[in-house]
Specification:
With 154 residues, the chain is α+β, with helices and mostly antiparallel strands. The chain has a single domain, classed as Pnp Oxidase, Chain A (Roll). It has 3 helices and 8 strands; from the N terminus they run αββββαββαββ. Strands 1, 2, 3, 4, 5, 6, 7 and 8 form an 8-stranded antiparallel sheet that branches. The two termini are 21 Å apart.
Length: 154
């Protein structure tokens, strides 16, 4: 990568395995969700979320800017909360309204954050249950900044 001094594939520690990225997505307490405003400007907010089955799951009020942005344009970028070992997802958001999916998300959320939300917390008319399916993922380990930048196309 010109300008950054990133070494070739046969130098440094090498490309990161996918399980490395997934472990950081599972472990993250918070995620930063970037959406696009109607005028094309960026909008970034922290959210709670759960990485499960190769997808990031989040929720937000249907009145929030982030929901309105995703409703208009489902393309988004999400990062974990670790600037030293970042995992950056470019993906597509999908809103779910069916009870089995919402129930599963609430169970995952309760297990991760040791909360006890009932399914009505995710009333689909009030709060959106959103899955973000990765299209590309980028990650690196700050301990080997020039040797580990890795991109996956999913």
């Amino acid at each position: 990568m010109p300008g950054y001094g990133v070494v070739g594939a046969d130098e440094g520690r090498g490309l990161l395995p996918w399980k490395w990225a997934e472990a950081r997505l599972v472990a993250a307490h918070d995620y930063w969700l970037a959406t696009t405003r109607p005028d094309g400007g960026p909008h970034v907010m922290p959210v709670w979320g759960v990485w499960a089955n190769g997808v990031l799951w989040v929720s937000t009020s249907r009145q929030s800017y982030k929901f309105r942005h995703l409703d208009r344009d489902p393309r988004c970028t999400v990062t974990n909360d670790d600037a030293y070992r970042p995992v950056v997802i470019d993906g597509l958001a999908e809103v779910h309204r069916d009870e089995p999916t919402i129930r599963r998300f609430v169970e995952w959320l309760n297990a991760k954050y040791t909360t006890s939300y009932a399914i009505d917390f995710q009333d689909p008319d009030v709060n959106a249950t959103i899955s973000i399916t990765p299209r590309t993922v980028f990650a690196l380990d700050e301990d080997d900044f020039t040797g580990t930048p890795t991109r996956w196309r999913l």
